[in-house]
Design a protein that fits this description.
alpha/beta, globular, 363 residues, 5-stranded mixed sheet
Length: 363
């Protein structure tokens, strides 16, 4: 499914406008017949996707008719339903990637293409102890929780209470309850991580924040030898600054950087060509592994080149480097992040909490 197509009409009230009756009594299921509390992705005749939560007495409305939720309940997954005007809709349980694209958002999410790469590059395994900062809207948290399984532990950290509340609602809504192996701590990672995780007790650290270089040292203390640090950043300047701090720390292997671009293809008969649209740049990933205490990373043998640089060279485009550097120059506005007003965030918190109740999660 394209990462740009999903819409969520149940969240914004396109069902019937009436309040769901006892929706919290119904927990979603991952397989079997569709039932109350389940998320359902309805695909219309023109390919438009509408994601709803099945609730008692609920209705899905479009400008071409309606479908009562009770007509969907009891059907097998991947069934076809007909609305009041005779149009057919394909009803499917959303995949995890579909779910995160249609859930309420406070902060920008980590797209499924990047979440999949993070799970692979960081080698997230069942039973792993993983630290995540910041939590945003909970999209990456959902992928990490699936990767570590019920035996693992996920420690999420978020500076803003509103983002933490939205993430809690979305994660609880996914399975109908808050995972017992997940904790969300509101506060600065540098201050709260040492009191949450013992030194050397963490297998993986995933940083999705404005200035991950500020948390390299505290992440190194928490990581076990051989553990993975992976950072998700939006701009080239953030990527460069993070790489230089990882190198300067002397605590990690040489960092590896990459970005992931996904291009779909139109395949229909003899018309086989790339799609006109693609999900291109969303962010960069930079990963390194924790060295054993006292280990010295061997220098890479390479030919001398004109690419040698000094701190003064870096200071020419990294605002906090050099004697005249200003660490406060790194702001969300400078790197192009679009924030939401407090009013919008409060609305998103209410939507996420209502979303969780519809899916059977406790308050």
């Amino acid at each position: 499914m394209s990462e740009q197509q999903s819409t969520d009409d149940s969240i914004v009230g396109a069902d019937s406008g009436r309040a769901p009756q006892a929706a919290g009594e119904h927990a979603p299921s991952a397989r079997g017949p569709l039932g109350y509390g389940d998320r359902v992705q309805l695909t219309g005749p023109k390919g438009r996707l509408n994601t709803i939560t099945l609730v008692p007495d609920g209705e899905f409305h479009s400008h071409r008719g309606l479908i009562r939720h009770e007509e969907i309940v009891g059907l097998p997954d991947a069934s076809v339903v007909v609305n009041s005007s005779g149009e057919e809709y394909l009803a499917l349980r959303p995949l995890l990637s579909d779910f995160v694209m249609s859930m309420p958002r406070g902060a920008a999410i980590v797209y499924p293409k990047d979440a999949a790469q993070i799970l692979s590059l960081a080698d997230i395994f069942p039973g792993a102890r993983v630290v995540e900062a910041g939590v945003g809207s909970g999209a990456l948290s959902l992928h990490l929780l699936r990767g570590i399984g019920p035996e693992g532990r996920l420690f999420s950290f978020e500076r803003r209470e509103e983002f933490a509340d939205i993430a809690r609602g979305n994660v609880a809504a996914f399975s109908g309850r808050a995972p017992e192996n997940w904790t969300v701590t509101v506060g600065d990672l540098q201050q709260t991580l040492p009191s949450s995780c013992d030194d050397g007790s963490v297998d993986r650290v995933v940083l999705d924040m404005l200035a991950p270089w500020e948390c390299v040292d505290v992440s190194a203390r928490a990581l076990a030898p051989g553990g993975v640090l992976i950072c998700y950043v939006a701009t080239v300047t953030q990527l460069s600054r993070t790489a230089e701090e990882i190198r300067r720390s002397g605590l990690f292997t040489h960092p590896q950087s990459s970005e992931t671009m996904v291009r779909g293809w139109h395949v229909e008969g003899l018309a086989v060509r790339p799609d006109h649209r693609m999900v291109a740049h969303t962010g960069f990933l930079i990963a390194a592994r924790r060295l054993a205490p006292g280990a010295q990373l061997p220098e890479l043998k390479r030919r001398a080149s004109k690419s040698e640089f000094t701190d003064e060279d870096l200071a020419s485009w990294l605002p906090d480097m050099g004697e005249q550097g200003d660490p406060g120059a790194w702001t969300p506005e400078v790197v192009g992040e679009r924030g939401k007003s407090d009013r919008v965030l409060r609305k998103k918190v209410r939507e996420a909490q209502r979303f969780a109740r519809e899916r059977g999660a406790d308050d």
